[in-house]
Write a structure and sequence with these properties.
By secondary structure, the protein is of the alpha+beta class. It has one domain: Nucleotidyltransferase, domain 5, CATH 3.30.420.100. The protein contains seven helices and four strands. The chain has helices spanning 12-15, 21-28, 65-69, 79-95, 115-126, 140-143, 150-165; strands spanning 34-39, 44-50, 57-63, 102-104. A four-stranded mixed beta sheet has the order 3-2-1-4, with helices on both faces.
Length: 166
Protein backbone atom coordinates (compact mmCIF):
# COMPACT_ATOMS: atom_id res chain seq x y z
CA UNK A 1 0.00 0.00 0.00
CA UNK A 2 1.25 3.47 -0.84
CA UNK A 3 2.23 5.87 1.88
CA UNK A 4 3.75 9.29 2.11
CA UNK A 5 2.70 12.88 2.74
CA UNK A 6 0.53 13.15 -0.42
CA UNK A 7 -1.28 9.81 -0.17
CA UNK A 8 -4.95 9.95 0.82
CA UNK A 9 -6.54 6.83 2.22
CA UNK A 10 -9.89 5.99 0.60
CA UNK A 11 -12.99 5.47 2.76
CA UNK A 12 -13.22 1.98 4.22
CA UNK A 13 -16.43 1.02 2.38
CA UNK A 14 -14.84 2.22 -0.88
CA UNK A 15 -11.72 0.13 -0.22
CA UNK A 16 -13.91 -2.92 0.48
CA UNK A 17 -15.84 -2.32 -2.76
CA UNK A 18 -19.15 -1.97 -0.90
CA UNK A 19 -20.13 1.64 -1.71
CA UNK A 20 -19.91 3.79 -4.82
CA UNK A 21 -19.94 7.26 -3.25
CA UNK A 22 -20.34 9.06 -6.58
CA UNK A 23 -23.56 7.15 -7.28
CA UNK A 24 -24.76 7.56 -3.67
CA UNK A 25 -24.29 11.34 -3.85
CA UNK A 26 -26.35 11.52 -7.05
CA UNK A 27 -29.15 9.50 -5.42
CA UNK A 28 -29.17 11.69 -2.31
CA UNK A 29 -29.47 14.87 -4.39
CA UNK A 30 -32.99 13.78 -5.41
CA UNK A 31 -34.12 14.46 -1.80
CA UNK A 32 -36.52 11.52 -2.08
CA UNK A 33 -36.50 8.23 -0.19
CA UNK A 34 -34.41 5.53 -1.87
CA UNK A 35 -35.97 2.19 -2.81
CA UNK A 36 -32.96 0.01 -1.99
CA UNK A 37 -33.11 -3.40 -3.71
CA UNK A 38 -30.59 -6.04 -2.63
CA UNK A 39 -30.34 -9.60 -3.88
CA UNK A 40 -28.60 -12.59 -2.34
CA UNK A 41 -28.40 -16.12 -3.70
CA UNK A 42 -31.59 -17.09 -1.87
CA UNK A 43 -33.58 -13.93 -1.14
CA UNK A 44 -34.58 -10.42 -2.24
CA UNK A 45 -34.76 -7.52 0.23
CA UNK A 46 -36.28 -4.10 -0.45
CA UNK A 47 -36.06 -1.15 1.93
CA UNK A 48 -37.28 2.41 1.72
CA UNK A 49 -34.45 4.49 3.16
CA UNK A 50 -34.38 8.22 3.93
CA UNK A 51 -31.19 10.22 4.36
CA UNK A 52 -30.39 11.59 7.80
CA UNK A 53 -27.22 13.39 8.86
CA UNK A 54 -26.53 10.90 11.66
CA UNK A 55 -27.15 7.92 9.38
CA UNK A 56 -29.72 6.64 6.91
CA UNK A 57 -33.13 5.85 8.38
CA UNK A 58 -34.96 2.71 7.22
CA UNK A 59 -38.64 3.55 6.82
CA UNK A 60 -40.02 0.17 5.69
CA UNK A 61 -38.60 -3.24 4.87
CA UNK A 62 -39.91 -6.13 2.78
CA UNK A 63 -38.14 -9.47 2.49
CA UNK A 64 -38.89 -12.38 0.19
CA UNK A 65 -39.17 -14.64 3.29
CA UNK A 66 -42.46 -12.89 3.98
CA UNK A 67 -43.84 -14.44 0.79
CA UNK A 68 -43.40 -17.91 2.29
CA UNK A 69 -45.57 -16.88 5.25
CA UNK A 70 -48.22 -15.76 2.75
CA UNK A 71 -48.28 -19.13 0.99
CA UNK A 72 -45.54 -18.87 -1.68
CA UNK A 73 -44.16 -22.38 -2.30
CA UNK A 74 -41.51 -21.53 -4.89
CA UNK A 75 -37.91 -20.20 -4.72
CA UNK A 76 -37.54 -16.71 -3.24
CA UNK A 77 -34.78 -15.30 -5.45
CA UNK A 78 -36.26 -15.62 -8.95
CA UNK A 79 -38.04 -13.04 -11.12
CA UNK A 80 -41.63 -13.67 -9.89
CA UNK A 81 -40.48 -13.58 -6.24
CA UNK A 82 -38.69 -10.27 -6.88
CA UNK A 83 -41.86 -8.86 -8.47
CA UNK A 84 -43.98 -9.98 -5.51
CA UNK A 85 -41.47 -8.64 -2.97
CA UNK A 86 -41.52 -5.31 -4.82
CA UNK A 87 -45.32 -5.32 -4.79
CA UNK A 88 -45.35 -6.09 -1.05
CA UNK A 89 -42.82 -3.33 -0.42
CA UNK A 90 -44.89 -0.91 -2.48
CA UNK A 91 -48.03 -1.69 -0.49
CA UNK A 92 -46.14 -1.13 2.78
CA UNK A 93 -44.71 2.14 1.41
CA UNK A 94 -48.13 3.43 0.38
CA UNK A 95 -49.46 2.58 3.86
CA UNK A 96 -46.54 4.52 5.39
CA UNK A 97 -47.30 7.54 3.16
CA UNK A 98 -44.38 7.08 0.75
CA UNK A 99 -45.67 7.59 -2.78
CA UNK A 100 -42.44 8.37 -4.65
CA UNK A 101 -38.81 7.29 -4.45
CA UNK A 102 -35.64 6.72 -6.48
CA UNK A 103 -34.30 3.25 -7.25
CA UNK A 104 -31.00 2.23 -5.64
CA UNK A 105 -29.61 -1.08 -6.96
CA UNK A 106 -26.20 -0.56 -5.39
CA UNK A 107 -23.25 -2.15 -7.19
CA UNK A 108 -25.50 -4.50 -9.19
CA UNK A 109 -25.10 -4.34 -12.98
CA UNK A 110 -28.21 -2.62 -14.48
CA UNK A 111 -29.34 -5.26 -17.01
CA UNK A 112 -32.78 -4.69 -18.52
CA UNK A 113 -35.35 -7.30 -17.55
CA UNK A 114 -33.31 -8.49 -14.54
CA UNK A 115 -34.48 -9.32 -11.03
CA UNK A 116 -33.73 -5.76 -9.89
CA UNK A 117 -36.12 -4.33 -12.43
CA UNK A 118 -38.75 -6.98 -11.67
CA UNK A 119 -38.74 -5.58 -8.12
CA UNK A 120 -39.07 -2.09 -9.63
CA UNK A 121 -42.12 -3.24 -11.63
CA UNK A 122 -43.68 -4.55 -8.41
CA UNK A 123 -43.14 -1.20 -6.71
CA UNK A 124 -44.66 0.61 -9.69
CA UNK A 125 -47.71 -1.68 -9.80
CA UNK A 126 -48.29 -1.08 -6.08
CA UNK A 127 -48.54 2.67 -6.75
CA UNK A 128 -45.10 4.04 -5.87
CA UNK A 129 -43.80 6.49 -8.49
CA UNK A 130 -40.16 5.85 -9.41
CA UNK A 131 -38.48 7.46 -12.44
CA UNK A 132 -37.63 4.74 -14.98
CA UNK A 133 -37.61 3.77 -18.64
CA UNK A 134 -40.18 1.26 -19.92
CA UNK A 135 -37.49 -0.65 -21.87
CA UNK A 136 -35.79 -1.95 -18.72
CA UNK A 137 -38.88 -3.63 -17.25
CA UNK A 138 -39.27 -7.38 -17.82
CA UNK A 139 -42.26 -8.61 -19.89
CA UNK A 140 -45.43 -9.73 -18.07
CA UNK A 141 -44.91 -13.40 -19.03
CA UNK A 142 -41.59 -13.46 -17.17
CA UNK A 143 -43.03 -11.62 -14.16
CA UNK A 144 -45.75 -14.25 -13.89
CA UNK A 145 -43.18 -17.07 -14.11
CA UNK A 146 -44.29 -18.65 -17.41
CA UNK A 147 -40.65 -19.18 -18.37
CA UNK A 148 -40.14 -21.31 -15.23
CA UNK A 149 -43.32 -23.31 -14.69
CA UNK A 150 -47.05 -22.88 -15.42
CA UNK A 151 -47.90 -23.52 -11.74
CA UNK A 152 -46.08 -20.36 -10.68
CA UNK A 153 -48.39 -18.10 -12.70
CA UNK A 154 -51.40 -19.07 -10.58
CA UNK A 155 -49.40 -18.58 -7.40
CA UNK A 156 -48.39 -15.04 -8.41
CA UNK A 157 -52.01 -14.09 -9.12
CA UNK A 158 -53.16 -15.62 -5.80
CA UNK A 159 -50.56 -13.73 -3.79
CA UNK A 160 -51.36 -10.41 -5.49
CA UNK A 161 -55.05 -10.93 -4.72
CA UNK A 162 -54.15 -11.75 -1.11
CA UNK A 163 -52.09 -8.55 -0.78
CA UNK A 164 -54.90 -6.50 -2.31
CA UNK A 165 -57.36 -7.92 0.22
CA UNK A 166 -55.12 -6.99 3.19
Amino acid sequence: MANGPRYKMAFRRRREGRTNYHKRRKLLRAKLPRAVVRRSDRHIQIQMVAYAAVGDEVLITAHSRELIKMGWKHPTSNLPAAYLTGYLSGKKAMTAGIDEAVLDIGLEEPIGGSVMFAALKGLLDAGVWIPHSEEILPPKERLMGNHIDERIEGSVDELIAKMEAD
